[in-house]
Design goal:
The structure holds two protein chains of two kinds. By secondary structure, chain A is mainly α. Chain A has 17 helices and no strands. In chain A, α2 crosses α3 and α13 packs antiparallel against α14. Chain A is globular and about 65 Å long. By secondary structure, chain B is an alpha/beta fold. Chain B has 14 helices and nine strands. Chain B is globular. The relative contact order of chain B is 0.13. Classes of the chains: A mainly alpha, B alpha/beta.
Chain lengths: ~450, ~325
Amino acid sequence: MASYVFYGWWDWRFLFLIIFSTLLDFYAGQQIYKQIHRPKKARYWLWLSMAGNIGVLGFFKYYNFFVDSFVDLFANFGYEMNSTWTLRIILPVGISFYTFQTMSYSFDIYYKKLKPTKNFIAFAAFVAFFPQLVAGPIERASNLLKQINSKRTFKYQQASSGLKLILWGFFKKLVIADALAPIVDDIFANYADYPASTLILGVTLFSFQVYGDFSGYTDIAIGTAKLFGVELMSNFKFPNFSRNVAEYWQRWHISLSTWFRHYLYIPMGGSRVSKLKSVRNIIVIFLISGLWHGANWTFVFWGAIHALLYIPVFLMGRNRLYANNVIAQNSWLPSIKEIGQVLLTFSLVTFSRVFFRSPSISDAFAYLKQIYRNFNYAPYVHPMGYRMLDFYVLLAIFVCYEYLIRKDERSPFKFKSPVVRLLIYALIILSMMLFYDDGVNRSFIYFQF
Amino acid sequence: MKKFILKSIIYGFLILLLVEVFVRAFHLYTEDPPRYIDAYGVEKRVPHHEGYAVTGNRNQNFSKFHINASGFNSHREFNPSEHTFEVALIGDSFIEGFHQDFYNSIGKKIEAQLPQVHVYQYGYAGYDLANQMHLVHAYEEQFMAIDEIIYYLNYESDLDRGVYEPNYDRINMLRSTPFKIRDQIKILAYGSKIGVLEPLKRLVSGQAFENKNEGYETNKVTPYSIKEQRLKDLQRLENFKSLMRLYGFDKTKTTFLLDSRTTSDSFLAYCQQENIAYIDFAPAFKASKTSTNLIYDWHWNNHGRELIAKVISNYINSKHKQLK
C-alpha cells in the first residue's frame, strides 16, 4: 500500500496503469502455469501479458515517436503529412522499469523457472516495491518476490550496510552528478560557441554525471530495501574501470542488460547459433536497449554505436574474458595495459554519450562536427563563475576512491578502523555542503525513462 | 534494532561534530556582527567587532571586517572636526562592504586619491533612503561637521517608503534563542547561508509537498507596464519629497551616487530642476572592459570599487578645488 501511495503521490491517475500491470500479470502468471503442459495456450497468455505491458509502454512512451517518425519517413518520399495524430501524453514515471519487471514474472513462469504466487498482496508489493519502482534495479520475481513472501527479520549488519549505501548513493547524486549538471547543461546548450577542448570536457563530465546520478539512485534504492530486510540485485559494478565494452555491459545497468540477455537474447538463440545470427542478435538487443531508454532516434543511435563496439569484442571471443574479475585483481595498481584498456573503453563509451545527451541526432552530429571544426583548446569558465579546479579535484578523488573499493560495490566503506570510517562519513557530509547548489534541478536523469 | 538505533544516533552525532570541526577549521561559515537599534532609532552593528565575511560554499570570497566605535564597518573612527575635510558615504551593503577587506574599501580608495580627505562609510546592509536620511537627521550634530554627504541611491529599491520606522521586530528576531543557537553552531550558520537547510525547512513545514511541479524557485521578473511604471515613479518621487520634508536635505553639501541606467528620467529631471547634485557612475561602468561585479554575488568587485572611488574623487575635486 505504501508503495502505491508513493507512486500515486506524483500523479494519482497513473496509479491505474500500475494497477493494470499488476492485475494483468498476476492473472496471466496463473494462467500460464495452469496451461504449462499445453504450450500453445501458455504462449497465448504470455503474449497477452506482453501485449498488455508493451501496449501500455508503447502508447505512453513511443506513440508520438512512431507517429512523427512515420510522418518524417513519408515526407522523405515527397508525401507531406500533417502530424495531427500526435497526442499530448505525459510519460508516467518509471513505466519502463515496472513493465519490464512484471513481464519478467510471466516469462519466468513460462520458462518454468518460477511458480506463480497466490498471494496477490505480495505480488503487488513485488511490482511496486517503492525503493526501486521508478528507476530500478529491474528485479526478477525469483529474487524479490521470494523475499517478500518469506518472513523477514531485522538484521543489524544488513541495516547498517543499507545506511552506508544510502550515504554513498547520496554522495554520488548530490556531489558528483548535481555538481556537474550545470556545467554539462551549459556546454551541451551552447556547444556551437565552444572549442573542442570544452566539448570533450562536456561529454566526459556527462559520463560522470549520468553514472553518479543513476548509480547513486541505485545505491539509495538498494540501501533502503536493506532497511526493510530485502536484498536487491546489484546494478552497477564500477563500469568506469571496464577493460572492454563487453565488460562495461557486465558492469553498467546490470539489471537491464541481464533482462535483455535472459528474455530476448537467449530466446533468440544467443551465441549458440551461427556467428552471423549471433551478430544479428547483438544488434537487435542493443537497438532495443537504446529505444528502451527513450523515444528518440538519439538513443537508437547510441545503442547502434554500442553494438558496433561490442561486435568486434564478441567476434574475438573476449566478451566473457573479464566476467569474473576486476581491474588489478591481484595487485594494488593496474598494469599499463589495463590502464590503456580502461582509458580506451571509457573514451569509446563517452563518445557514444554525445548521442545519449543530445536532444536530437542533428544536434549530436553538430556537436561532433564542432569538435572537428574548432579543434582548439581554451580554458572553460563555469557558468556560475566557480573555480573549475574544485570539480577536477573532486572527480580525481572520486575515481581514486572508487578504485580503492572496486572489488565490492555493496560495501563502499569497508575500512577496519572506525575512526577512518567516521572521518570518511564526515567528509562525505561536508562535501555535500561544499558542492551544494540550490539552483540545480535535482530530478534523476533516469526518471525520464 | 535497539543497537542499530543507538549506534546510528551516536554515529550521527559524531559525524556532525566532525563536520562542525571542519567548518570551523576552514572558516566556511560567515560571521554576521550583531545588530541593534540605538537611542536615536538608528539600526547599526554593535561596535568593536572583528571577523570574516565569507561568500560561497567553498570560501570563494573571504574578507575581513572591522566594526568601529560608531557601529559601521570602516577603517576609520568617525570624529569629524573643523580641521579636516570629511566625506560621509552612506548606503546599503554596497557601502558597508562586507564583500571586501575593510582596509580595501571605497573610502580607502578615495583617500588614496585625495589624501586630505577622510571618508566615513556609513554602510549597513538593507538601508534604503529612509534609513540613510534618518541617520543624517538623527546624528545632525555630527553631520554638521562633515563637509560632504553622499547617499548611494539604488533607485529601484531605495525609495519604497516616505518615512523611516525602526524595524524592532527584525532585531528581536535576530536576538532570539534560535538565531543565537544558529550563530553559535557553525554548521548551522554555514548550512543556512548556502541554503542547504531550505529543503529541510520546506519538508518540516510541509511546503515541499505543496508544489510538486516546480522543484526549484525561478527568478521570473514581471516587467511593469508603462502606466504602472509611471505610477511607481510618481510614488517614489513622493516618497523622496516626504523624506526631505521629514529629515531635511542640505543641497549645498549633499549628493546622490546613482546609476542612471536604472534611475527614472523623471527622478533625474526633478533633481536637476531642484539643484540636487548627483554622481552618475553609469558611464564609467559602461566604458569598463572588465567586469565590475563579483562572480559569486552582485556587489562591486575591486575594479568596480576603483571606478566608484574615481568618480567620487573627481566629483569632490571639481567641487572643492582647494583640495587639489
